[in-house]
Design goal:
- The protein is mainly β.
- It is about 0% helix and about 65% strand.
- A hairpin with an 8-residue loop joins β1 (about 10-20) and β2.
- It is elongated, with a radius of gyration of 15 Å.
């Protein structure tokens, strides 16, 4: 099942257009990410970095297929110290839903 994440593999360049809101002014940002397989292809790692104005953000994520529970798991760690955990499944051939 981890092969369903093959569409993510490789180097990514991201451009963000952040609209003005009650949280701040409008701005743009760029980021890069690398998705790669790890540990006998049991996991997909994601290393990410972005720069919004003078702030640099970095993150590391781990995707795994939980054979026992029959769902995907995601662990997300940020250089700010924040982290999150999600589970999910493909709701169709093109959409991975994480919660």
């Amino acid at each position: 099942m981890i092969n369903k994440l093959d569409f993510l593999l490789g180097n990514w360049k991201m451009i963000y257009n952040i609209p003005k809101s009650s949280f701040g002014e409008a701005s743009t940002s760029v980021g890069t990410g690398i998705f790669k397989r790890a540990l006998n292809d049991k996991y997909v790692y994601f290393d990410y970095s972005s720069a919004i104005e003078s702030d640099t953000d970095e993150a590391h994520a781990i995707f795994a297929w939980d054979e026992k529970a029959k769902l995907f798991r995601l662990w997300w760690f940020e250089n700010s110290g924040n982290f999150s955990i999600a589970t999910g499944e493909f709701i169709n051939d093109e959409t991975l839903f994480l919660n």
